[in-house]
Structure prediction request, 190 residues.
Amino acid sequence: MYSSFAQLKTDCLDCTDCPLADTRTQVVFGVGVEDAEVLFVGEGPGENEDLQGEPFVGRGGQLLDKYLEHIDLSRGKNIYIANIVKCRPPKNRDPREEEQAACEHWLREQMRLIHPKIIVCLGRIAAQKIIKPDFRVTKEHGVFFERKGFYLMGTYHPASLLRNPAQKGDALADFVLLRDKILQVCERTY
Ligand code: URA
Prediction:
């Protein structure tokens, strides 16, 4: 268990716990405010993230930033963004179960130290790992699940919105629900 976020990051950047370490350019640890009340979790870095070392910096990331801005959130101001796996799976394939399992301890420590009130899962992989194994994004997006005093919600992955623009309205509505939940349960976000 870590007491320092900086030490956690330093160690994570050196991780060789799974074979993704062999093909990555950089570990993508996460970005944002280290005591954020709202934590976003994606699946794993893509090509741009692997090159730049920051989550959600490609086209999907730009879309995510637009949705965040719509409800007065930003990675520089009041949220944290991390991923289930910290290294890019080759050709952007889904991270394998064993890769997710090997990486899980980093996200667990991030969650313990950030101690968010709300966790938003971006896409199926994150929602199935964090909320429940049979989570269905199309059916359960925007629904808040309370667990031990904090709240979990899953919504569409930004890359999925780029492929299926018809889902964008539903995604935006999820962000509006998120704003309402923040106003209800968070004290420092706005
Ligand atoms: N997709 C993700 O799930 N995470 C990123 O950081 C980038 C793209």
Q: What stands out?
A: The chain is about 45% helix and 15% strand.
